Protein 1
Amino acid sequence: MSANERPVIDLSRDPNPGKPDHALPEGAPRHPLIDLSRDPNPGVADHARPDDED
């Protein structure tokens, strides 16, 4: 596998299909260091790697 390839993930082994496993339980308090009020671009996924322009 080269440095820019992603590993293959077997989705048939997912114990909770369709549910993000990293999500907080409903009603759980947010981590005190995560302050979404300071986001300069709310609702915009500007943390993702830019698309390749070929």
Protein 2
Amino acid sequence: MVITVAGEKKEVKEGLTLPELIEQENVETPEYVTVSINDEFVATEDKESTVLKEGDNVEFLYFMGGGC
């Protein structure tokens, strides 16, 4: 099946779970990343059980702190 990850179309296996995708994409500090699928945030407690579907659009969002 084809999904979009960070704006790039990717061919992935059917039934791919969000934790498997996070591992495949070598996401740094996965415990701190916020994930959106089709512009909806995935709750932390739902990450482990989320299964991706054909055409899903996945974005990984990181908190960027900064200041003077």
